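hi support,

uploading two proteins for the ticket. first:
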Amino acid sequence: MAVAQVEQPVAGISRREFLYYIWGASIALYSAEFLGLIIWFAIPRIKEGEFGGIIPVPVDKIPPVNDPPVNFPEGRFWLVNLDSTAPNELMYQAGDEAQPIVGLAAIYKVCTHLGCIYAWNSATNRFECPCHGSKYRLDGRRIASPAPRTLDRFEVLVTLSTGETLVSDTDESLGFYAPITIPSGAEVVDLRIDTGKKKQGPTQTLLSEIVA
């Protein structure tokens, strides 16, 4: 005689298991939202043209070689065009500088002493801080203390008419951005300053001591 097989009913989840599942899903959702908020706040959202981001510079604002600096208040920097091989009262090569200083540089507008805003003095042809009297050459090197070091610089990005893009290199001997030299015959078609990338100026002998 055949024995009929009785199917056993499938047991459902208990109330306790259901609550555990709901609790686990809630924790996972909360953790995902919290992580998303952290990532959201960590990612920079500085718009182009605002300090802390990239500042476009019209190429017609590039100063002639060894001319006074051009002020860019929105980016908090001075743009300079240097050439110590063509010295004048604004830019010259000091005795301890083995290599010529040539090219474009963007100099942060904050004194390295106590953070005052310095200015260019056209009467003396140098940067001067009104707070404590620190003085700097056109390229930002210290002329007189109490500033402890040369002025800081921002990264410069240049696109040439040849299609080549140049980015500030680090001067290994000084540890901060070297000026960007424009190759002979090339023209600058786009110029940008990244104010989110700043390097501190080095500690160098005061130019006033070298002259003395």
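and the second one:
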Amino acid sequence: MNRVILHIGMERTGSSALQRYFARNRTVLRVMGVRYPQAEAAGVALEKHQDLVDAIATSARGELLWEHGSAAEVLASYVKRAERSANTVISAEGLSAPDPVFAHTLAPLAQQFDVRVIVFLRRQDEWAVSSYRNAVNTGTVGGQSIVDWLADPQTRARMDYRAILRFWEEAFGADAITVLRYPHDVPLVPAFLAAADLPKAAGVLPDAGLRVNESSSDTDLREAMARAGLPPVVPDLDQDQRDALLEDYADGNAEIRRRYLSQRRTLFGVA
């Protein structure tokens, strides 16, 4: 049975580095039996499979993505390509959004393929600081301070990893899910290749050591904060705020550790 490896992110866990590696090595990987389907938007080649994410999201709203079609049509195009390859990798961090529609839409893949779901998790306080700073830099923070942003229900839902993983477990079963911890200072491509059981030779291809989307400088952050109408200081959380945030998700993190990383004493190295 052919395999489909779904890399669902999450955001701010090095997904762009992984996608760039697969996109730049697409031709050589095909020779190794690994397909990384080409995706496009407005005639521009994409490094990630955002067309699939967008089609699912718009179809869920009862709309049609004019360029690509419905979610069923876009998924069918991926299935057609996966049928011709021993291994197909699909990668888009948007798939890990706190909404069951993504896992539900992709669940039928299990009828035809051996599906593996791989996700990188980052400790919630670290994820929060990185995501907020990215929102500041991209101008999407909406004038919210980091404290107000953290209180937003949508932000809270993004950090509820247990709930998100439940969607995917319901679709494919616990045995299909591989949870990896975000590696801070080393490339994540080798960890992904090992978890996906892809050819070891793929690890020596160009860009296997890529790390992209690194943090902006403090100066850039201060300037972006000022543009957003916020105090021009580098946003961060103090230790009490970090401890409180981790406490909020302690039970969920403990369950993830028990279900997917039973060999570890803790999920992120903190009790």
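thanks. also noticed: Residues 159 and 213 are 20 Å apart (CA to CA).
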